[in-house]
Amino acid sequence: MPIATLSTATLVLTQEENGYVVPGETVRRNVTVTNSGRSAADDIRIRIADDNPFFGPLETGTFYLKSLAPGQSEVILVSLVTSRSLENSVQEIPLDISYAVVDGVPVTQRDSLTLDVHGHAELSIASVRTILPELPGENPLR
What we know:
By secondary structure, the protein is mainly beta. It is 0% helix and 47% strand.
């Protein structure tokens, strides 16, 4: 029978699905950070890792939360710019997470956003020809 147990914080990230990602467009995803542990997590930093050349942070690549009590959640908005050369695929965007537990010990972990990339057909016009109607009594070549 244990005499004492160490309570610790455990951070879990979940993302809101907003459909497909289109190459060349901005992606915005709500990410919920939940402390599913038994003690508080303090000084929480979530950083978008620079491992993927097809995505980059739009405004900021680092998010800061002061503290999350056990069972508490916060939502952060992650905005990414995508490359037009991105192929149809499932992409994982690494997130580096660091925080301090109750005794001040730093904890680091890695999680990721998962994005489903699908391009779309683009309509383009090769040439346009406009024919102006002649009005009676006017010479259009004057």
